[in-house]
Amino acid sequence: EVQLVQSGEEVKKPGESLKISCKGSGYSFTTYWIAWVRQMPGKGLEWMGIIYPAESDTRYTPSFQGRVTISVDKSIATAYLQWSSLKASDTAMYYCARGGTYSYSVIDMWGQGTRVTVSS
Amino acid sequence: QSVLTQPPSASGTPGQRVTISCSGSSSNVGGYTVDWYQHLPGTAPKLLIYTNNQRPSGVPDRFSGSKSGTSASLAISGLQSEDEADYYCAAWDDRVNGPIFGGGTKLTVL
After folding, report:
1. Chain A residues 96-115 within an 8 A CB cutoff of chain B
2. How far apart are CA B55 and CA B48, in angstroms?
3. CA-to-CA dists, residue B81 to A17, A56, B13, angstroms
4. Could you give the CA distance from residue B82 to residue B84 in angstroms, rounded to a whole number?
5. pLDDT digits over A33-64, tens only?
């Protein structure tokens, strides 16, 4: 089965670091883009950035540049989204998603989402 | 506030046809193709329309997309209760040099 499976829910304190994961299976992981999308509580979808696993070519939406790091480990078909110092405003659902079947920015498959809560 | 403007809400009765608009500018909708996603509560979003009017395999032909100038539309005909969801348009934007989503439209089936 072609799927993206994300790591589980996280509850963290402000200032803590976090790395969430997204494992692809059932397809050639390195030849499709992996995007990260944020949905804050009660809000819409926001494109955070995207990575091409074969080359680790990474592109960030300006508003997320410097605030998160997107990376990938090709050997285990897993992409990551990480923060070095979380803020309460990072509380959101985070989706990883696959692009590249139709074009790099068209997402044809999504992970189930990882809920991140940042609270003191 | 997204640069792709969608109405916050839309509604219709079963069997009806509804349209959801997505208004942008020459730096996004006007210059690039538009995609549409459906987001049901508690689930992952789903691609409904890509490249303005193309349906991925498995998406019913009740869903259709169009684009004219700096605006795009998603039409849903034969509205069903399971269509109740949030709908997002998406397009490339020159100002962020990347893809962006519209603000989303919550569709209610009355």
Report:
1. 97, 102-103, 105-108, 110-113
2. 6
3. 42, 42, 9
4. 5
5. 999 999 999 999 999 999 999 999 999 999 99
Chain A CB contacts of B2 below 8 Å: 44
Supply the pLDDT for residue A103.
87
Cβ distance A106 to B50 less than 8 Å, yes or no, reads: yes
CA distance B5 to B22: 5
Per-residue pLDDT tens over the stretch B50-95: 999 999 999 999 999 999 999 999 999 999 999 999 999 999 999 9
In angstroms, the CA A44 to CA A38 distance is 8
**What pLDDT sits at residue A14?**
98
From A5, which residue of chain B is nearest by alpha-carbon distance?
A: B44
Beta carbons of B95 and B3 less than 8 angstroms apart: yes
Among A32, A105, A112, A115, which would you mutate to test the B interface (most chain B Cβ atoms within 10 Å of its Cβ)?
A105
